[in-house]
Amino acid sequence: AQTQSANKEEKTDFSELKATFKVHNGVAHNDDLSLKSPLLRLTGNGDINIGNDSINYLAKATLAKTLEGQGGKESVGGITVPVRVSGPFTDLKYTLDFGAMVGEAARQKIEAKKEEVKTRLQEQLKGGLKGLFK
Q1: Which of 6, 17, 43, 68 is most buried by its number of CB atoms within 10 A?
Q2: Per-residue pLDDT for the chain (134 aa), expressed as one digit of tens each?
């Protein structure tokens, strides 16, 4: 086995990492991975089969709208890129989950349209109520 010394100059900058695992019959299952860094937000879920040295995991990375990092806003922008990590530890496969990507893009458009309609209805309601209380 080959080893490499850690380089103190190289590091991964993130402000928060949260995850819980439930282990049953040698399989660690996770539903709530959350990693926050100045440039991206990462969520994920899946299984790590400890006995078989394999993984089946879906990680979703979204670029942040702001570079404020740890003290920054929670809002993120852009398309979420879902990457499936699967296979034995000795030969991991990384594939883009295009179906999840299209679904996420559609969900974001629907949310934006809902906000637009909500704002328009609130404005119309305010205008309609003005005439009632004269």
Answers
A1: 43
A2: 566 676 777 777 778 999 999 999 999 999 999 999 888 899 999 999 999 999 999 999 988 776 554 444 555 566 788 899 999 999 999 999 888 778 877 888 898 899 999 998 888 888 777 766 65
